[in-house]
Design a protein that fits this description.
Blueprint: E1 2-7, H1 13-26, E2 31-34, E3 45-48, E4 65-68, E5 86-87, H2 92-111, H3 113-118, E6 137-141, H4 145-157, E7 160-164, E8 175-177, H5 179-188, E9 192-195, H6 209-213, E10 219-223, H7 232-240, E11 244-249, H8 262-265, E12 269-271, H9 281-296
Parallel strand pairs: 1-2, 1-3, 3-4, 4-5, 6-7, 6-9, 7-8, 9-10, 10-11, 11-12
The structure holds NADP nicotinamide-adenine-dinucleotide phosphate.
Length: 311
Amino acid sequence: MARLLFSAPPEWWPLYREPLLRACADRGLEVALTDDPAEPTGFDYLIYRPGGPVTDFTRFANLKAVLSLWAGVERIAGDATLRVPLCRMVDESLTRGMVEWVTGHVLRYHLGIDAHLAGQDGVWRNAVVPPLATHRGVGLLGLGVLGTAVAEALAGFGFALQGWSRRPRAPGDFATHSGADGLATLLSRSEILVCLLPATPDTENLLDAGHLALLPRGARLINAGRGTLIDDDALLSALDAGHLAHATLDVFRQEPLPPGHAYWAHPRVTVTPHVAAETRPDTASQAIAENIRRGEAGLPLLHVVDRAHGY
Ligand code: NAP
């Protein structure tokens, strides 16, 4: 019998209880599942999302792994009280959601859709014809699970795509870069820049004034990674100066984004409330249960976080 503790904000428990039990039963797993950390049992697995009752892992002496309901694990990757493997959420529904969200926003920019939404005022605005995707430079920061899936979708439209990751990639269907020089090359060719990097010490403020200045004038930015990737003051300055034409931001240093934040009122910013890719209980529960099955069978866990690098 595997003992499972669910620690997340209280509204998540009714959404996850049944799907988790079902996913475990599908695999023939015998489990005891609770959301009460005070139960005097030694828990084997902790199913975790920030904002729940567990903030210190020290007292869970029997724990075999922490299984994150979020793909981004920056809030616990560096937690010194966590001494067991941390697995992050990799789930096909979450990936599909991100592909749809990013594709939609890239196409919005590429096609200039806003120009036609702005004024249904009798003016025949046909002066600007967008290039075909093959002539549109799109840069993608982050080529992980989500970035790779997004790249495949954008490559399907034929965008002039480039990607950037920490480790160099073998040559593939589109140009890839790593390191500082590779980043500079990618930025200089990105009319639309998509960020799908994790929040780590190395990516903090990556998009600062210097890097934003390398983008072509009139570039557009889409951030669905984490808010810490961007120096907010530098981005606002670049937008005010017209160097960047627009930014679509789904993630922020503080969430919810405070009502008085400059991004809300800025005419060149679209704010979306961290909705690019939702974790969906049915499929996320399958991913969690699969790791419990593997743990109980003595198999290597999937998607273990490299805590030295923070993702
Ligand atoms: P992942 O599979 O861990 O991929 C991360 C990518 O970032 C990898 O390509 C990695 O390079 C690259 N990277 C990390 N540090 C780097 C550095 N210092 N320099 C250059 N590249 C670096 O993560 P994922 O599943 O694709 O998810 C990415 C992020 O999306 C998550 O961490 C989370 O913050 C965010 N997210 C947002 C939402 C939302 O709704 N907005 C939903 C889910 C996730 P290597 O390939 O060389 O390792």
